[in-house]
Amino acid sequence: MRRQGGFTLIELLITIAIVAVLISIMLPALGGARSSARSFRCQMSQRAVAFDFAIFADDLLHGARGQDDRLPDDQFRLETFQEKQYQIDEFWGWGSTQVRELPFEGNDPMRCPSVEGPVELHRDTACSRGGVLPAKNISFGFNLRLHRIEEERDGRVGFYAVKLTTDILSHPGVPLLWDVDGAKADANGVSPVFSAPSMDSRGPFANDRYWFPGMRHAGSMNLTFIDGSVHATRRPLEDSLEWGYQPKLR
Fold it and tell me: At residue 242, what are phi and psi to the nearest 5 degrees?
């Protein structure tokens, strides 16, 4: 009788070795493709937020501005825009519940897919006062210098709230939002919803207290400007000439 064919032990070991080599070659490529896909989705999310901001800032296109409706028609606060995006505080859009966890039925507009873990939205609470928690799971930070500015008065540098106008849209190269490291912000004792580098500050911005870029896309972070352009960068402070831009107090 003819012996039935099959693999010898040596042939089997060689086959396993070849498969292992192929897997070791393919895994980095697959990991890189997945990382690129997450970065692209993050960029799309940031671009969508910038588009919404352009509408919110436009005197002719904006809808309700919440409590900012009490301001002159041409003025608004950046934090109010944030709260409208999250649907918190005066924009609460989550029914009778006091706390809403995101993502919720696919609704999660302020999310980088590389950041794992949900965020909790708290009713009747502003963004910067714990309306969005925990800090470590917050994906995007907005330019703090568009929310508060440093100004020297009587020899002291103070921290002052500002109101924006549609004029902000005429500064396309000013950073609007970017990936942040929420855990580092929490360690600094601040909320990651606002961020800004120190530059030459001698006041509250000093010592990079509010600077915690999230370099989570293969060593890069996504940075979005007022005009909606998005850049992946390893050196964010070299990608904009307007990091120090501050609107005028009104």
Answer: -120, 30
Instruction: State yes or no: pLDDT of 29 exceeds 90.
Output: no
How is residue 32 annotated by DSSP?
H
Residue 209, classed as helix, strand or coil, is coil
Domain range list for the chain: 9-238
* Residue for token pair 């107090």: 249
Task: Write the CA distances from 26 to 20, 21, 23, 30, 32, integer angstroms.
Answer: 10, 9, 5, 6, 10
Question: How confident is the model over 157-191, as pLDDT tens digits?
Answer: 888 999 999 999 999 999 999 999 999 999 999 99
CA distance 233 to 242: 16
Looking at the DSSP bridge assignments, the partners of residue 7 are none
Q: Are 216 and 114 in contact (CB under 8 A)?
A: yes
pTM as predicted: 0.85
Buried b (16+ CB within 10 A) or exposed e, 2-24: eeeeeeeeeeeeeeeeeeeeeee
User: Pick from 20, 14, 51, 247: which is nearest to 150 by CA?
Assistant: 247
- Which tokens hold the place of 68? 């900012």
Contact status, residue 244 vs residue 198, Cβ threshold 8 Å: no
How many other β-carbons are positioned within 10 Å of the β-carbon of residue 141? 24
